[in-house]
Write a structure and sequence with these properties.
The chain is α+β, with helices and mostly antiparallel strands. It contains 14 helices and 13 strands. The protein has a five-stranded mixed β-sheet with strand order 7-6-5-8-9. A two-stranded antiparallel sheet has the order 1-2. Helix 1 packs across helix 4 and helix 9 (202-215) packs across helix 10 (232-248). It is globular. The two termini are 32 Å apart.
């Protein structure tokens, strides 16, 4: 087990830069994970010798719950991980480690509890008749992946491995019932916002609440630590906007034929290029120039670009639009949001210009990548960089605070394990 030291915290943490904060967090995470692996060795030894003989408790988990002052359920989870990652005597007296590759990665401080649980869950689903070499190979794949990926990617890769080792049929899905009658009222307020109200029957109301809850769920924080602080009304509002995007992008939607065009945005050319300033939304309200620049990526809005004298220089042309054929090609190539670790399907994604069209970027596949709404905004506002690899697959360069060497990353969730 590698030696780790707890870094000295600066006296005035608010003076620290973002790199210093990020490095402190990552170092302490490694310390915590290495210490957790060491704790597991002690608990496995207590369980092996017998907690009743040592301390008078019926099990190591009951003893550890009292020592750590935690619930028995949480204590049992810790002990279960310990027993899976450390030598435990079996029938005949021979000690065996259930997941040796995972144990090695845990001792290096590379795995969190979620990584370990995801790997162990997959390993326990492998049938007993699978050869030992194939099982060990599958575990090594997952343990190596877990050093740089999140639990969702591990689960995805694990399910692909299970499908290869023990193929089964797909579970059936029940069809949605036909939408019943409903009433909706939309009213524009003086400040430019819109008020939405209505009266729904029990069935439609239940389906609406279920859809808003599903699309308005909190974003996961397990991969890159982006916490979701939106309130429930805010999350439901964002869910409503996403449902509208899905409807507008439908090829059968009247008046759009699958193009993601919604309203006109009037903006100055300098403001559009710099992202600083204001834009007029269909002459009924304003949005920031940065928001207009983001929306123009997938033509959610038609830009009307003005010169300094107010003369219309350009009204959104078809060549800026991602055509239905290009969209189908993007869906096939990226399989969904291309951001590393994102599971969002193509229907939830925008077509992002890697080099923005206002900067001369063309609307072709080599300059386009699928991004969900959250990661589309993240790429526009954060230090992530997108580029096209030589093999024609988009890859993402993380900020320096996340990876000092800035190794490029790809999303492997939408691709079957090779």
């Amino acid at each position: 087990m590698p030696e780790t030291t707890i870094p000295e915290l600066p006296r005035e943490l608010w003076r620290a830069g973002k790199l210093e904060l990020a490095h402190g967090v990552t170092h302490l995470l490694e310390v915590i994970r290495v210490a957790s692996a060491g704790l597991g060795k002690y608990l496995a030894e207590v369980e092996t010798r017998g907690a009743e003989d040592l301390f008078g408790y019926g099990s190591a988990s009951r003893w550890f719950a009292d020592v750590a002052r935690i619930s028995r359920g949480d204590a049992q989870d810790v002990v279960n991980r310990a027993l899976a990652l450390n030598p435990v005597p079996e029938v005949g007296g021979e000690a065996r480690v259930f997941a040796p590759a995972t144990a090695a990665a845990a001792e290096d401080g590379a795995l969190a509890d979620q990584h370990i649980d995801a790997i162990l869950d997959i390993l326990r689903k492998i049938p007993d008749d699978v050869p030992t070499e194939e099982r060990e190979g599958a575990e090594k794949i997952l343990a190596d992946l877990a050093r740089a990926a999140g639990p969702k990617e591990i689960t995805k890769a694990g399910n692909d491995l299970l499908a290869h080792l023990d193929p089964d049929g797909n579970e059936p899905k029940d069809p949605e019932p036909a939408p019943p009658r409903r009433e909706v009222f939309v009213e524009r307020r003086k400040d430019g916002f819109w008020k939405l109200s209505g009266l729904l029957d029990p069935e439609t109301g239940a389906r609406t609440a279920a859809a808003l809850d599903a699309y308005g769920a909190r974003r996961p924080v397990d991969d890159f630590g982006q916490a979701d602080h939106r309130t429930m009304p805010q999350r439901r509002g964002d869910a409503w906007a996403e449902l509208l995007d899905l409807a507008i992008a439908c090829p059968d939607q009247p008046g759009t034929s699958g193009y993601r065009t919604l309203v006109h945005v009037t903006i100055g050319l300098d403001e559009l290029r710099s992202g600083v300033g204001k834009a007029c939304l269909d002459f009924v309200g304003t949005i920031t120039a940065r928001e207009a620049r983001l929306a123009a990526c997938d033509c959610l809005m038609i830009p009307v670009v003005l010169s300094a004298a107010g003369e219309p220089l350009d009204v959104g042309r078809m060549k800026r639009f991602v055509t239905p054929g290009q969209r189908r090609a993007l869906n096939i190539r990226d399989g969904g949001c291309a951001f590393p670790g994102c599971h969002r399907a193509p229907k939830h994604c925008h077509a992002h210009h890697i080099q923005h069209w206002t900067d001369g970027g063309p609307t072709d596949l080599r300059n386009l990548v699928l991004l969900c709404g959250f990661h589309h905004r993240l790429v526009h506002h954060d230090d992530w960089q997108v580029r096209m690899a030589p093999d024609g697959i988009p890859e993402f360069v993380p900020p320096q605070y996340l990876d000092p060497l800035r190794h490029p990353r790809r999303n492997i969730l939408h691709r079957a394990a090779a």
